[in-house]
Amino acid sequence: MQNRIKAALLVGSIAASGALAAVSPEQAAELGKTLTPMGAEMAGNADGSIPAWDGAGAPIPPGYVEGSSNYIDPFPNEKPTLIINASNWQQYADNLTEGTKAMFEKYGADGWELQVYPTHRTSTRPDWYYANTAKNATGANLVADGQKIEGNYPGVPFPMPQSGLEAIWNHMVRYGADINQNYDVYLRRLQRQRRSGNQCPLSIRLPHVRKTPDQVVGDTPYTLLRIDYNAPARRAGEILLVHEPGADYTEGKGREAWQYLVGQRRVRMAPAVSFDTPNPGVAGTTTYDDSFVYNGSPERFNWKLVGKKEMYVPANNNRFVFETDVTDALGEKFFKPEFIRWEKRRVWIVDSTLKEGQRHLYSRRTFYLDEDTWTAVAGDMYDGRGNLWRLQYVYPAVMTGNNSDFFSAYGAYDLLQNIYNINSKPIPGKFKQGTGVKDDKFFTPKGMARSGVR
Q1: 3-state secondary structure the chain
Q2: Which of 298, 343, 379, 414 could form a disulfide with 293 if both were Cys (CB 3.0 to 4.6 A apart)?
Q3: What is the CA radius of gyration of the chain?
Q4: Structural contact between residues 260 and 448, judged by C-beta atoms closer than 8 angstroms
Q5: Could you write out the DSSP letters of every residue in 1-42?
């Protein structure tokens, strides 16, 4: 099919799971030639709707103040070039995720539509990150049934993935920036709207990215994440701290999580903050491993790399993420279409099915990874009977002049309960990128105890 794109240097057959050898030096040499330094196809597509990657990044928008953390829209004067709505969506069905097609079937008559803008391949990374990605192409390997990466430097571990596990690892340890922000959580159920959070401070540090570039990742954590809950009232004063590994989910090496509970006035380990435990931050409408579309140990699923395809997904959503009060964008059943920017992108499709003998709310999950960033920008979740149940989108934004992107604003739709939510979208003016605000002690259990409400 015209829209099907063969993976440029896919080696051998695509395996559902397990360890595979790194690619050859000859194959890795295509990085920076036919492939970008991150492993994406450098060329544009046949009809020009996806441009070639040139490494220039996003333009500096008028009114942007250097060093500012409010990353205004770099394309403020652009208008949609295509509207996909109830009248024509089937014409574009081959370029839509299963979740997006389900939204048209359920809400198309109510005005659900995609406003599609010109595609801009704005993602860039530091030169050292590109150099490490080239090393990883020939040196990184999955071991321990895919639970651990050996020999990987801070970079994309598998820029030319040969399995679904390799591709999902690329997402799990993707590049990012340290951030501090305040955010609200909103849930919407038809006529009812509920605010779940009230300017909850979120801090994320990425030691994996900040590590000395010439050292392998080893035991360095990927993420240190802390949320101090101010609301709802029943959770005010709670603190959640998560240390996410950068390369190893084998026994005794996986996620560490702690909670400070006001009623107990103590910090406790929180092993339940993982897998399909309902996330109370969004009233249980998603699971903990739904955060950022997917996170955590891949051990409970079989993973299959389906291939690469051109699809319409959210992209370059600076106006929505950094400039819009979320209440202005809330529609009765979905976000108001005029606030969400969609582009045609090439995405890797990774399908996962629950392993025999394992337990999870979802029997199957399909993820769509943007080829330029390795970020899961959409996901489809199926219930135990195999029916599409929930879907998620990330609303990516450009962090101007930063060699990074923002991927923490994500929305989820529950098709069975008619609920949707938005989580981790910054409150305008309440976002700061960079280090220097929170010290290392802040991300420790002792730091939680010192901050706890007495």
Answers
A1: CCCEECCCCCCCCCECCCCCCCCCHHHHCCECCCECCCCCECCCCCCCCCCCCCCCCCCCCCCCCCCCCCCCCCCCCCCCCEEECCCCHHHHHHHCCHHHHHHHHHHHHHCCCEEECCCCCCCCCCHHHHHHHHHHHHHCEEECCCCEEECCCCCCCCCCCCEHHHHHHHHHCCCCCCEEEEEEEEEEECCEEEECCCCEEEEEECHHHHCCCCCCCCCCEEEEEEEECCCCHHHCCCEEEEEEECCECCCCCCCEEEEEECCCCEEEECCCCCCCCECHHHCCCCEHHHCCCCCCCCCCEEEEEEEEEEEEEECCCHHHHHHCCHHHHECCCCECHHHCCEEEEEEEEEEEEECCCCCCCCCEEEEEEECCCCCEEEEEEECCCCCEEEEEEECCEEECCCCEEECCCEEEEECCCCEEEEEEEEEEEEEEECCCCCCHHHHCHHHHHHHCCC
A2: 379
A3: 21
A4: yes
A5: -TTEE--TT--SSPBSSS--PPPPHHHHTTBTTTB-TTSSB-
Q: Point out the residues of the chain with pLDDT beneath 70.
A: 1-21, 190-199, 211-212, 434-437, 452-454
**Terminal Cα distance for the chain, rounded:** 63
Phi and psi, residue 396, nearest 5°: -65, 150
User: Cα 269 vs. chain centroid, distance in angstroms?
Assistant: 26
- The pLDDT value given to residue 196: 53
How far is 144 from 250, CA to CA, in rounded Å? 7
Amino acid at 311: M
Q: Which domain holds residue 119?
A: 4-65+72-451
* Cβ proximity of 381 and 389 under 8 Å: yes
| Cα–Cα dist 233/105, whole Å | 37
- The pTM score is 0.93
The total number of structural domains that make up the chain: 1
- What backbone torsions phi and psi does residue 10 show, to the nearest 5 degrees? -65, 125
pLDDT at position 181: 87
* Residue 398, phi then psi, degrees to nearest 5: -95, 130
CATH code for position 278: 2.50.20.10
The CA distance from 29 to 26, in Å, is 5
As a whole number of angstroms, the distance between CA 43 and CA 41 comes to 6
Helices (H) and strands (E) in the chain, counts: 8, 21
Phi/psi for 84 (5° steps) reads -105, 120
Contact between 23 and 11 under an 8 Å Cβ cutoff? The reply is: yes
